[in-house]
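Q: Predict the assembly, please.
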Amino acid sequence: MTDQTADPTPEVHVRVPRYSGAARINHWIVAISFSLLALSGLALFHPSLFGLTALFGGGQTARWIHPWLGIVLAFAFCGLFLRFASQNLPEHTDIVWLSRIRHALSAGGEEYLPEVGKYNAGQKFVFWSQSFLILILLVSGVCIWDRGLAYLEATIGFRISIEVMRWAAIVHATAAVTTIVVFIIHVYSAFWVRGTIDAMTRGSVTGGWGWRHHRRWLRRKVHEGDVKRSRGND
Amino acid sequence: MFPPIPNPDVSVQKPQFGPQDLVRRSASTVPPPTRQLTPVAKLIDVSKCIGCKACQAACLVWNDLREEVGENRGTYDNPEDLTPDSLTVMRFTEWINPGTDTLEWLIRKDGCMHCAEPGCLIACPAPGAIVQYSNGIVDFIHENCIGCGYCIKGCPFNIPRISRVDNTAYKCTLCSDRVAVGQGPACQKACPTQAIVFGTKDEMKAWADDRIKDLKSRGFDHAGLYDPPGVGGTHVMYVLHHADKPHIYASLPDNPRISPLVKAWKGAGKYAGMGIIALSVVAGALHYLVQGPNRVTKKDEEEAERLAEEKT
Amino acid sequence: MASLAPTFGRGAMTNSWTDIKNTDLVVIMGGNAAEAHPCGFKWVTEAKHYRGAKLIVVDPRFTRSASVADFYCPIRQGTDIAYLLGLINYCIQNDKVQWDYVKSFTNAGLLVDERFGYSDGLFTGYDEEKRDYDRTSWDYQMGPDGFALVDDTLQNPRCVWNLLKQHVSIYTPEMVERICGSPRDKFLKVCEMVAECASKTKTMTSMYALGWTQHSKGSQNIRAMAMLQLILGNIGVRGGGMNALRGHSNIQGLTDIGLMSNLIPGYLNIPTERETNLDQYMSARGFKPLRPGQTSYWQNYKKFFVSFQKAMWGDAATAENSFAYDWLPKLDVPSYDILRAFELMHMGQMNGYFCQGFNALLSFPNRRKITSALSRLKFLVVMDPLQTETARFWENHGEFNDVNTSSIQTEVFELPTTCFAEDEGSLTNSGRWLQWHWPGGTPPGEAKTDNWIMAQLYLRLKALYEKEGGPVADPILKLDWRYKDPGHPTAEELAKELNGHAVTDLADPVDAGKVQIQRGKQLPGFAALRDDGSTACGCWIYSGCFTEAGNQMARRDTRDPDETGAYGGWAWSWPANRRILYNRASADLEGRPWDETRKLMWWDGSKWAGYDIPDIAPNARPGEVMPFIMNAEGTARLFSLRGLREGPFPAHYEPFESPIVNVLAPRIRGNPAARVFKSDAAQFGDAEKFPYAATSYRLTEHFHFWTKHVQINASLQPEFFVEIGEELAQEKGIKPGGWVRVSSVRGSIRAKAVVTKRIRKLICDGKPVHIVGIPLHWGFMGEAKEGFGPNSLTPFVGDANIETPEYKAFLVNIEPITGPVA
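A: Predicted assembly structure:
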């Protein structure tokens, strides 16, 4: 689906659709549930952050809402996974990209990097690590979810020992910290690489953004004719 | 008549300890108390226990709790396990002593051990939901409890249970409300054979010594006191006829300690986790300061436009 | 207690609960004190803790008592007599006898009638047709002076000791193992531990309860132990005794007050129809001493009896009308016990039933017969604080009470009563303590005290008699009813009446000019009773409980000088506030305590002194007056004369339903002297169809059929179950917690199975015997899950002397079933 609205930036004459409306909604469900999960989770992780439970109306609510948000996140992330997995498959250029990560991290360094497709190796890393971590968080989370376990025991007779719960707790905490770090990388990257956020808000990016960061992808999009051009005054 | 506890005074008394006597408070800190209360302890003499469950009934009555009428599952254990209402249960084990080839019916009153180093308190994320008084009593403060069940994971004895009614955790309080006004716990009061006695921890240890001597004289060479050092000792102790193998008493841990996993999780782990998160935020900030924003240039846009032109 | 009275003189626990702490050895056999008497059991733990006492448990099951015992020995239910006579035999064979005690304080030396004998399992005089004995030969040889002949050297072959020695000689350890299934080595270990207590400074206490009484020879079970205790010298001493633990908090009070069909208060008898006048009644109750100089306290019988009559009919009981002797009912049969009453209902010969303080439908044997008996009544009145199954016997509760309601015409009246905690009064505990209690709560709804209900009934009956007249109206019309509120006598008024008062000024027996007790004053004790109608006393043994000094039962003095366990200032103990019966026997013939460290009473040169009230005249010289003052011999009886219906010595008989035949007398089924109604005899099962030996019992979580109405107790032991051993479970494919059906000739029940190591297969007479345990607390009313009780299965036969039903030994079959059957 392409953006049907008029190009609001006159300087830009090429806009490239990047995310469909559905993908964006899906993403933001994940993003919101993730943030709430992080907030409620951190509140229960470190005493100094317990005050965050106030955002949810108190500790009891934070406690019960966290696993349900987790379920929402898990389902929503499945959607993202199905959408994006194929485009996140590793390829040879990823190795080159990673070997020149220094350039990738500097503002003008992309000149020294191979042309990348829809996702660069960093983005793929975020994708795969979050996929993996969310799976871990889901499984370990269920293992420390008192109510959920009671339900599973009552319905399918699933029972785990307290020792397993302890492992689950530590795994959950570790995975949570990791996923938050990855999340920070993800958010920061979106912020640092200007014009990126457009992709998840408007659904499209400027042609220059594509040229600069995902040239191979842009070429493909142009080739497919899936770009929007506008005749500006320059 | 029954040393060491005569019938206590039943006149109205002011509580003898309170929030000012906390030595630990979950997910928060407390100022060091200005006085040290004499540590108390409940001693459960398994060798005297007849498994009558008067303690269970007394516990339900005093705490105004009611256990549901369950079913018989082929044992005398009813309810089958601790619940948010049954803060103590009798656990019955039929054990053949391999040394004498005789049957021993081991009956252990299970419930909170009131560890000196309480795993539940360490695991608890809710400030003030679990507290420890300087007399050793570990108590749950229900208005602060969020029902997460971390205490269950923290406990080396598998004691706390979460109520489905108010979603808070329950366990034996050592009748802190009774002890505060000079009474013994309800279970101790109800015990017909003095298998449960209550007093200062020192008194209870002395009492136990006496009992152990008696048991040794009856051929229980390994009789002993269960006051496990792995959790800093407990304020509920057992006299066991076979103190060399606590596990025969319905899986009483031989050497309980707070799980290293829980320690890692709620000890170094929580600081490390927070540190890592903070570090990544700082790293991002620094990166931004050094690099500034990664903007798309006019040239980039032009290149893109050119590319698009070429195509058409 | 039908067996203790013929042995010691009084039918009651000899010592007190608190005295158990003084013992060296506790034998729990025929009971399960930890389970059924957990509060009293504390004194066992005291003895173990402070004295290092040992505890032996002999029981078919490894019980809660066994869980804290030093030694456990299994036994097949219903074979206790063989076991105990085996113990006596061991003591005699190994010279473990407290000789000084036996020679001085028992009838060991008295010579027995030459005609008396025992062969083929029967004593002389048996009439198979009547299932009864002609007991004339069960007597002493009498000298020309009217006293029994004695051989103090115990050489005469006809002396009690030699007869006993011969009688028990067949009960060898091998025979005990063969009959009881108790492994020989375990039995011998018990023998060794028990025999140690023949020492003057070691005592053993026997704690027993319904595990001995609920047999067709229950009285003889108890007598066998009573004899052993005499041989060991353990009666009348601290830490000794025969401690009959009562199944209810006030059952001792029930028998004391004579709530038996053949008794009036204080263990006096209701006359039989052959005793048509007072003189004739008294002639059989002279109780002349059988040895010179003995007290034979029952010589005072007439004083107790006349005072009772005065308490009943006051001024209307006069010397002229033989103190209203004619107004007492006269028995045409030995007793109208519950078994006979239900037999009569079942035959349609008893049409109304007042059920006060019983849950007959669950308590009495052969439930099918009970249901059918109740269904034939015209009316049933149930007085109870709870909704009992008896009151709802007509209501269909599916398999739990499968009756056809429309076919039952019985009119049922329920009168809600207060429970003990809601009114005032006294309870008499096992140890004969009358303890006053005060209401702890307000009765709910329309509940009324039993006193109120009975008084209201009486007043209405009296009004009807006044209006309409009727045969023998006087006993009702002239009943002495002097209560402040005739419609509601208070507990205090009734207690005062039991204690007794002076009807006229009582002259001082020493100085006739002086008045000893003024008219209308409360009597100080039964010593003041007279047989001329000048005293009234409702229950002579309770005289002293409510004196001019006030309510003695309400005393709460916890002092116990020298910690003897007497607690003489706490409540009041009958008789005369004595805490240990026959306590003069705690000292030797010269009056010196057997054990200085545990002395109780001693002769101080002029009188008996000590920690208790002497159970003998205070100035009765030692060596002259013997300690068992209620017995005409002055001594305790190893040979009980005609006291018990099945013989002067106990003998082993199998239960009526037994997995093996009586190896001593294969021809005899059950107790030959036990009464069996014709229709019930046909309902005895045999081991072919019902191969397993069942027994019934209580669980500590519950109290009879009361606490299943209490939510907390119901949650602690929620559901009916039966207990079997692992071997039987394996044989039958029964899983722990699985469903089983247990059946006898008389019925069948469904239960959960508790499979346990605590019950093991026994080998009796070479055959394996599996035991099935059936607890009794479930019914179809209350908070606990609906369930059955053992009485759906048990046989309708009772003890030969007091008709306590045989609940402890019967035969069943057991099969696994898949689940609840609708």
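Chain B is about 30% helix and 15% strand. The mean pLDDT of chain B is 93.
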